[in-house]
Design a protein that fits this description.
25% of the residues lie in helices and 24% in strands. The chain is of the alpha+beta class and 518 residues long. The radius of gyration is 26 Å and the shape is globular. The N and C termini lie far apart (77 Å).
Amino acid sequence: MKAQRLSGCAEVSRIGPSPAPVAATATAIAASLLAACTAPDRPVAPALSRGIDAVFADLDRPGSPGASVAVIRDGEIVYSRGYGEAQIEHGIPVTPHTVFHVASVSKQFAAMAVTLLAADGALSLDDPVRMHLPYVPEFEHTPTVRQMIHHTSGIRDQWQLLAMSGWRLDDVITTEQILGLMARQQELNFVPGAEYLYSNMGYTLLGQTVEAVSGMSFVEFTRDRIFAPLAMDRTHFHDDHEHMVAHRAYSYAPLQPLAAATEPPEADPAAADAPRYRKAVLSYANAGATSLFTTAEDLARWLDNFRHATVGGPEVMRTMQSRGILNNGDTIPYAHGLSMGEYRGLRTIGHGGADAGFRTQVYWFPEVETGVVVLTNVANGNPAGRARDVADVVLAGSFPEEEEEGEEDDAPPTADDAAPPETPGPAVLAAYAGTWYSPELDALYHLSVSDGRLVARHVRHGEIVLEYRAPDEFATDRWFFRSVRFERGGDGAVTDMRIGGGRVRNLRFVKLITPLPG
């Protein structure tokens, strides 16, 4: 027995609110719409459908964020379905045609665009970045286009720099603002080619390189050279946060259930245990590192290009899979916006993405010509794990290596017996107090001693407690401000503060001698 093909589910977002006066009736109607419009829209084998549906069972209900899945095999989309809701506020279900922001899954398309230009002879991947983008500072060692592709350029990451500067990642963030940060960078994280360290800034610059070389906008170039030839009709780079997109998903993050003590006495116990969600706002107005808007089925069509190479041809698609090589000759697992890996003995080509509440994953299994796409709009969506589970169903019997049970580790856990370092007294901490300024970020932090602790204050981030780790070294619990190291001059006085951790290293702040006006 085959599943019945649906029609019109992509139009469900046009359905207005139910005129039914009874709330229960409206709920029932929404539930029936969700069940109808998230069923597979193409005939599939019942066993395949049951196996994949089980992977998304926890999302397959009204009031829950959801997921969209597509599987392509030997050039045919063999399964696609939506689960849960694209817009919880309006009860709009996810369908195979729901448009998601796919975060860093975008990067392979920025890499593809510059690789196409290289194949055209319009640029070389070994060109210095400054050849095409003269506002990039003239560092002691010049990064190349290829090093940006492979995250070996040493260019600092845009999101961490923005956060250090005082931005929130749910602010409207434009390309121009990011490029302003790039133009102010005074140092690289490391000598280009020396290391692999993920840099979103490098991929924003790849998008700008496409514009500088092609004379087209990045949006137009990717549309004309990649998306249109592959019939990815619901796909575009979204560089305008005010641009309205039909059938789009919003993003969400889970909230912990309220404590029992805060529930009113008449509250339904079952309702108290139900997941609650908050809106995870995303207002990006920049593209290259992120901001691809697309559907699961469109991404499946892209994955199939690794098989037939309609766009780019075989040589370009081989280049797309070429992994980065460091200055010391080591090869990294990252290629052109793609992570090269293995799952259960089969090679994989893929990438994941995470912005706001969107979590996304694509995998191409070249040896069996199969692609899996999982797009979710909730921060705990676990798309990589779900994509592997889908692959287990679709490729059952095709894996060269069956998973083996791991050996149990009988060794008892070891405790860390090192005592935490004793925080210096207020007199020692006072040497670090003052106003610190970053010429690179044009940002200020005010350090002071409060209740025996060193505290940094920022106008937008509030208080950040610096925990003592070693002489002149501190740490914090903020992702953009992990480590703090102070430097001293010849007279022993504290002169510089270096902030780092993550994808930005040793960002310099100088201590202002003259106090700011009160």
